[in-house]
Design brief:
Blueprint lengths: L2 H5 L2 H11 L1 H11 L1 H12 L3 H29 L1 H21 L3 H29 L5 H29 L2 H14 L2 H10 L7 H6 L3 H11 L2 H13 L3 H5 L12 H16 L2 H16 L2 H25 L5 H24 L6 H15 L1 H11 L6 H27 L2 H7 L3 H20 L8 H11 L7 H11 L6
Length: 486
């Protein structure tokens, strides 16, 4: 066995990261649960197509606010306490949407759920990246995507069985409330287990809580190695930066390249249309399946394909590397979405229209569905990581909001339906995926196996920026002393 693998207590790391990744499970569960409720909910509240789009997309406005709040919250209170607040907000949202007596109340509590999603999407990847050893960081941070997609798969299956067990009139009257209420189970589990995880050691160092940081690092690995890692983290930013880390963030030649990559990947994660399938899968597939039950079941199997892809990607992310997998994901998304567009356009029979979507979901799960979260958690320096991840996730939420708001309008447009036979969104997403291939090829360096303190320098090299970085200096010192990497 790899001596480095022996050095780490991976059982402890995986347990802690799994609990933190529950933020991703709730994100996936809460964002996708609407797919089974949207049809009867729209009937119950008598919504127009534009209001139906608002019922789904308003959660993203809350997410946008959550992304803005998350950096400050996680820096002041810590990653662990911020995750606890996130779990409570999820719970409030679930209860509120399930008992909402009018559309305004429903929207209000769904926005609160969006706030929780924004917090989770920023804080969970940060915590996972900061706790994980660099050798295994890809696999541990991929737990966020595993939980997110796993939550989506569970909720889609739940949607299917609840819908199958009730008459259409009962679904409109109460069934959609049952669907929304099922999210209370993962909320309760998250609140319970979060009490048992430690604070991020890097946050503790940033706040001068050295004993707590060293204690956590010692639980992750042996004492000698923990002290070496602690020393490297401590020296990766100056004492002044630790006291005034907020002031370190400014738009200059060393931060703009980081944000270009962060925002570009975050937006790219959305513009391939993944959330259209997650939010509106049954609505989209009704164009070719003809029935709600069949569309719901096909949407569930699409989610299973993505989950399988995520599991496969976990085994590849640290071996093959982030950059190669993202390039693979972008080009396969373009190919399979284009095929699905052709299938929709020519009304191909049976399962032929959804075969391309099945393949798309597998490759998206292997690549963009998990790797973007890993890269966002690792490319930014510790002292500005939370705010930069927050800005990137804000961009992701804005892209998601635009796509989710416009899809119902595109999908119900008589002109687009007549011209493209329900496949226009797929054509649009295929073109966007091709654009992300060229973006990734040009700007993203490989970060697999690189310590967090050295990644910034690789990004600047990719942008041909020459800058002296404290992290680079400390890394060189560590190499000269043969200090092992965390």
């Amino acid at each position: 066995m790899d001596s480095r693998q022996k050095r780490y207590n991976m059982r402890y790391v995986i347990l802690c990261c799994t609990v933190a990744a529950f933020g991703g499970l709730l994100m996936g569960y809460d964002s996708s649960i609407i797919s089974g409720a949207i049809e009867p909910l729209s009937e119950y509240f008598q919504l127009t197509p534009a209001e139906t789009g608002w019922a789904v997309s308003n959660i993203l406005l809350g997410s946008l606010v959550g992304c803005f709040i998350a950096p400050r919250l996680s820096d002041v209170l810590g990653r662990k306490k911020s995750l606890a607040i996130t779990a409570l907000l999820f719970t409030v949202s679930v209860i509120g949407t399930a008992i909402a007596h009018n559309f305004t109340v429903f929207v209000l509590f769904r926005i609160i759920g969006g706030l929780a999603i924004g917090l989770a999407s920023v804080i969970s990847p940060i915590y996972l990246a900061e706790l994980s050893p660099s050798k295994f960081r890809g696999r541990t941070t991929a737990l966020y995507a595993v939980c997110c997609v796993g939550g989506q798969s569970v909720v889609l299956l739940t949607n299917y069985f609840i819908t199958k067990s009730m008459l259409p009139e009962a679904m409109i009257a109460m069934g959609w409330r049952y669907i929304l209420a099922t999210a209370l189970v993962p909320c309760a589990l998250f609140i319970f287990f979060i009490a048992f995880i430690p604070e991020s050691p890097r946050w503790n160092v940033l706040k001068g809580k050295y004993d707590a940081a060293l204690d956590t690092l010692t639980k992750i690995s042996n004492r000698e190695h923990a002290e070496s890692v602690f020393s490297e983290i401590k020296h990766s930013f100056s004492d002044e930066a630790a006291r005034q880390h907020k002031a370190r963030f400014r738009l200059d030649k060393t931060t703009v390249p980081l944000l270009v990559i962060g925002i570009g990947l975050a937006v790219g994660n959305q513009i391939s249309g993944i959330n259209v399938i997650q939010y509106f899968g049954p609505t989209l597939l009704k164009n070719v399946s003809g029935s709600v039950d069949s569309a719901l079941l096909q949407t569930f199997w699409l989610s299973v394909c993505q989950f399988i892809g995520v599991l496969v990607g976990m085994t590849l992310i640290d071996k093959v590397g982030r950059r190669k997998l993202l390039l693979l994901g972008a080009i396969t998304s373009c190919i399979f979405l284009a095929y699905s567009f052709i299938a929709f356009y020519y009304h191909l029979p049976g399962l032929l229209p959804v075969i391309g979507l099945f393949a798309y979901m597998i490759f998206f799960g292997m690549t963009w569905g998990q790797i973007v979260w890993t890269v966002l958690g690792e490319i930014f320096p510790t002292e500005i990581r939370s705010i930069c991840v927050g800005i990137s996730i804000c961009a992701m939420s804005m892209a998601n909001f635009i796509i989710s708001s416009t899809f119902p309008i595109m999908n119900s447009s008589p002109m687009l339906i007549d011209m493209f036979h329900g496949g226009f969104p797929l054509l649009l997403f295929a073109i966007f995926s091709l654009g992300m291939y060229f973006f990734t090829f040009r700007y993203l360096p490989e970060t697999a196996g690189v310590s967090l303190e050295k990644i910034h320098g690789l990004v600047l090299e990719k942008f041909n920026v020459d800058a002296e970085l404290p992290a680079a200096t400390s890394s060189k010192s560590a190499e000269s002393l043969n200090i092992p990497r965390h």
